[in-house]
Amino acid sequence: MEAKNKNAMIIAVKMKSVSFLLLFLLYLRLLGTHAQTTSVTVGGDTVKVGEITTMTCSYTVSTNDALDRLVWFRADADGTPILGNPIVSSDTGETSNGRYSLSNDKDLMISAVEVNDAGNYLCRIITQNGQVADDYDELIVQYLDTPVVTPAQLSVKMDDTATFTTEPVGFPTPITITWIKGDATLDVSDTEKYPNYDATLTIDNVNETDEGDYKCRVENAAYMGVEGKLSNTATLSIGWWE
Fold this sequence. Notes:
The protein is 14% helix and 41% strand.
């Protein structure tokens, strides 16, 4: 009887030990699940020229560590920071640098966006324990330049060919071009009269009805309707020289 009781006690102790070990292992697993690691996620943006944009930087810092400083850089196509003077840094005591500034959440804000602001931006954090983490994303800048039609003055002989040209510049592409004569859209459905009517407007067999002022209007996906850009005026006349 004594032997049976002794065995039962040994089994009970072993079961308690196993239970404790299992609970301890579960605790370690849960601790690892909830422990933070140092990481950074940058959010890009698409913006038009002249607008304000915000490149977001979301970060976490490892448990028992803290943020020391956060720095924004321009980055190349592979996300490698273009070192030198950073755009703006949280450790300088200054939250702005010209058109660039840090928000209260340490996001990068760019005012009056310009075409050359397009590209990759990298957010890097350094912790008090010396850990470094970064991420980058792209700022896409949409724009559309005012077109220029050349020549501004064109004189040709009767029945000759007149040619006006423009070079549309903008992003995104494609850029659509609409030619205007006077105050009305030019009807280019007669392809024998107007064999070209894209970046080059060709007018064949010029006569008196073709004389007048010509312009072009350009549009892309970002600048349509009233936001499209209208060119200068180019004038076509018929010369009567020999």
